[in-house]
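User: Is it possible to get a 3D structure for a protein together with its bound compound? The compound here is pyridoxal-5'-phosphate. I've pasted both below.
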Amino acid sequence: MFKVNDNYCKLPATYLFTEIARRVNTFQQENPDAKIIRMGIGDVTRPIIPASIDALHNAVDDQADSSTFHGYGPEQGYDFLRSRIAECDYAKRGIHVDINEIFVSDGAKSDTGNIGDILSIDNIVAVTDPVYPVYVDTNVMAGRAGDFDGQHWSNIVYIPCTAENSFIPSLPERRPDIIYLCYPNNPTGTTLTRDQLKVWVDYARANGSLILFDSAYEAYIREENVPHSIYEIEGAREVAIEFRSFSKTAGFTGLRCGYVVVPKELKGVDANGNDVYLNPPLNRRQTTKFNGASYLVQRGAAAIYTSRGQEQIKATIDYYMKNASMLLDGLKSIGIEAFGGVNAPYVWLKTPSGLSSWEFFDKLLRDAKVVGTPGVGFGPSGEGYFRLTAFSSHEATSEAVERITALKI
Ligand code: PLP
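Assistant: Yes, that's possible. Here is the predicted structure of the complex:
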């Protein structure tokens, strides 16, 4: 009999969003007239900006004519998009990223999950806790995580980020080979300043560690001292891979497009201790396992870099960020400690009256008919916290704030 990858058998069931759906469905069945406001899943709701829609339409027309038809494209992405990325996301901020260091993909979930293909399974991985679950689960699938005790994986180093340390991760006691950092952070919505991120770049340089830097929420950064790219930090090109996504920047959650940057200087070692640069193996991986993001989608993505596109995505992001500030103000007005929401579309709150994450979930659903995400679903240090997203409409957000502030908590 053939054998399956045992690592998949070790993975606990994806409990979080299934359990949320189960509780919401039960409540809705028992209360058919209840108007539930959903602020749980981190998906956008505003339509794709007109600049991208026009580009998508034009790209469809290109496919209808043999003179403009595009079949298989470059696996790394079209130059028309990679050159815009290099120019607008990096050069304009004084950062040099070569076009050959950029790999366009179908999104940051795939990229953060796939990067492990080119890294040895012997590496020790560190994550901040709470964490975007993909980093942990994909390492479990690869066999890098060890055993699960119901809360922690034995080979994963967890770095707690809670109100006690102002959500600033401390350097780990046990040296990790690979460190996942996500800023602005999902789920906490918090950020690191340049100086705080530099601590990690310096640590990685001193310890031969690799930083996997996920900046899927870069477009939400408002404050001056928050870096837009890890490559703003001196020396980061030698130790960091950066992931970006058009999902939250431009509403591409359904269209699918993102990219990863692997600088030419970045190197690890093979089993014999010989230097290996990471850009060629990633190129090899992409050309072997991926046939490129869709031509249409890449045209749509390139359009966000036009001045019209930039204005339009800014308006959409401003829209969501107005929701975030409504949420923050509302929560604070009733004495709930709330974090994030300034440079990110997530508000992370401390559950009141010592309620557990799930107890607060049930209370909010029952008494305010608002759905959020229990913090414990993102890792043990998320217990006692709760995430609300800013991706609803103004009307729904303001209604949710009214209902929450009316609660006796
Ligand atoms: N990284 C983080 C931190 C996210 O929160 C998400 C989506 O929620 C992703 C990556 C996935 O992005 P994409 O839609 O590009 O796959």
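The longest helix spans residues 307-333. The pocket of pyridoxal-5'-phosphate is lined by residues 42, 107-109, 112, 132, 182, 186, 214, 216, 245, 247, 253, 258 (CB under 6 Å).
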